[in-house]
Amino acid sequence: MSSRYAPREWLPHERPTFPGSPSTPLHPVRRRIQFAIVGVVVALTGGLSNALVTANLLNLQGTLGAYAWEMAWLPAAYVMTNVSANLLLVKFRQQYGLRLFTEIFLVLYALIAFAHLFVNDLGSAIAVRAAHGLVGAALSTLGLYYMIQAFPARMRLKAVVIGLGMSQLALPLARIFSTELLQYGEWRGLYLFELGLAIVALACVLVLKLPPSDRSKVFEKLDFLTFSLFAGGAACLAAVLSLGRYLWWTENPWLGVTLAMAIVLLISSVAIEHYRKNPLINTRWLASGTMMRLALSIVLIRIVLSEQSIGAVGFMQNLGLNNDELHTMYAWVLVGCVAGVAISALTIRPQHTGQHLMFAVLLIATGAFMDAHSSNLTRPEQMYFSQFLLAFGSTFFIGPAMISGIGAILSQPGNLISFVVLFGMTQNMGGLLGSALLGTFQVVREKFHASQLAEHITLLDPQVAARVQGTAAGYAHTLGDPVLRSAQGMRAMGATVTREANVLAYNDVFLAVAWLAIFTLLWIYADLWWRRLNPPAPAPAPPSPSPSPPADANHEHSRQHSSRCRTGHPPGRAPPAPPAGPERIRTAGPVGWAWCFTSWQLPP
Q1: Residue 38: CB partners within 8 Å, gap ≥ 6?
Q2: 29-54 vs 98-116: helix axis angle to the nearest 10?
Q3: Which of 167, 168, 230 is nearest to 201 (CA)?
Q4: How far is CA 326 from the centre of its chain?
Q5: How far apart are CA 391 and CA 170, in angstroms?
Q6: Is residue 424 within 8 Å of 83, Cβ to Cβ?
Q7: Do residues 223 and 280 make contact, with C-beta atoms less than 8 angstroms apart?
Q8: What SS3 state is found at 411?
Q9: Are the C-beta atoms of 503 and 375 separated by less than 8 Å?
């Protein structure tokens, strides 16, 4: 083996936790503060790369002269590359080292941000967003590593929670200040800010480097085949989930063809990995009951969290409000995100991650039930507290979700890539799936309510006739023809019906999210009870060397062996107590059910 791949001599407290992760030497307090600052800068830089575009799609639509469904390609392109990037990035860190990884991808990030300034059409914008998705995955991991260096060993779990939570602050931050950037230089103002932030992050990591790690030669030829198939399948799936509700699922044949391609490519990659000697993705481990239940829990939580982006923001935009008028609400969302990260870091315990998830879902359900009584008079002030609860839950859950899976790979570091892929897929695809489901549900319910309301809109109704005449009278100074004024009044009535149908549809979305959150709460609660009743078997202790028994003890040894085989424990000893399960689950689930059910019953 080459000397560059030779294992280093580490002190016990310095040894890297996972292959490719940095070592953890002791740092003075000043250096820890520096690592924390760099971690925040890098994490926010990676998060803002997508948040700035997501928060300003409507403004960018006019600049690029594109339709709404065409603009949906921008966030879709980011997810298409981001979701599969870690397949190779983890091994890249393991084989080529952290420092090369850091410098290459931050330089790439700065170059791509610079390339944004020369984007003049939708096609080039999509290509740049796809490249950003690749380097954004690298920055998220890098910010987490810097944050881990900022905390001593006894507080490492808190560092993981804070490092993961920092990237979640990007979207509310982008919604607060990006409007001023657009006023400064239109869409180039966004990209100039992003370029400046990328240069600052690059300078920070060049000045303050991460400690070294072990390196090993891990790449195999089949890795690139698996990556190609998996990345292609994930990209096709992301495209279908992003565009389906805009183009409608059954109206465009290419959506079905793309979905079929995604299924074929993903199954092919899984089949290759299932029979490899050294798989890139450990399919057997991912298919275990523990991992599947964890994945389903995270996906369900990501779906209900789509209430913020699809529900509340869409509801306000339907009422004619834009980002300028929602700054205070986004400030409350930011405060909720920060509070969620802080409280989660202070209370995190490996044995209580399930309770953390339940509490987060409970808050989400409560906020959604509160929003389900909205009307056309609802304004951001009425949603401050509910959006605070949703934001708190969105950051409160992500750290415990990651930590609940880390425990399963500490004893099997080879499954690190598999877990990173699982976590990334559930986060990204869960968010896309939530947006697709809730957006589709909102459209369907809007059509239903519009048809119900339209049945009662007739000029034979005196109230309707009076409303139309009153609206038409407002155009008397501009329209002299009474027929045109009456037609304008009918158009205004139709717009009112559409607005009210959308309000009712969004209330249905909020209510559906609340009940889905209740189901998620019960699912996590049942999973905790299942693990309590079926605790994992303790790992067998390594055999200790013992001298061979003398010849005259052979008969006694044989008798004891027979007794052990029949009873399962040595003769002369009491049988061992059954392994203790997790700590008794508290009654948070039933109490949460009652709380949420009661809040739903309250009058608006």
Answers
A1: 146, 201, 204, 205, 208
A2: 40
A3: 167
A4: 23
A5: 12
A6: yes
A7: yes
A8: coil
A9: yes
d(CA 419, CA 405): 7
Q: State how far the Cα of 88 lies from the Cα of 103, in Å rounded to an integer.
A: 17
Give CA–CA dist 570/564, Å, rounded.
Answer: 5
Confidence at residue 572, expressed as pLDDT on a 0 to 100 scale: 43
- The single residue listed with the structure tokens 């995270």 is 298
Q: Tokens standing for 498? A: 């559409």
3-state secondary structure string, 22-57?
CCCCCCCHHHHHHHHHHHHHHHHHHHHHHHHHHCCH
Query: What CA–CA distance (Å, rounded) separates 511 from 539?
Result: 45
Convert the pLDDT of each residue in 46-73 to its tens digit: 888 788 888 788 777 777 777 888 888 8
Measure the CA–CA gap between 184 and 436, rounded to whole angstroms. Answer: 33
Q: What tokens does 30 get?
A: 């000043």
Question: What tens digit of pLDDT does each residue of 381-392 get?
Answer: 888 898 899 889
Structure tokens at 174: 């982008």
CA 39, 41, 43, 46 torsion: positive or negative? Answer: negative
CB 519 within 8 A of CB 303: no
Summarised one tens digit per residue, pLDDT across range 180-229 is 777 776 677 777 888 888 888 888 888 888 887 777 777 778 888 888 88
AA identity, residue 444: V
Q: Which two tokens stand for residue 106?
A: 């931050």
Q: Determine the 3-state secondary structure of 279 from DSSP.
A: coil
Cα of 271 vs its chain's centroid, Å: 27
- Could you tell me where the DSSP H helices lie in 411-461? 416-454
Beta carbons within 10 angstroms of residue 534's beta carbon: 10
Average pLDDT, the chain: 76
Residue pair 129/238 in contact by the 8 Å Cβ criterion: no
Q: How far apart are CA 434 and CA 263, in angstroms?
A: 19
Element of type H or E holding 2: none
Q: Is the pLDDT of residue 422 over 50?
A: yes
Query: Contact 324/182 with Cβ under 8 angstroms?
Result: no
Tokens of 409: 């790979």
3-state secondary structure of 535: coil
Tokens representing 446 are 């809007």
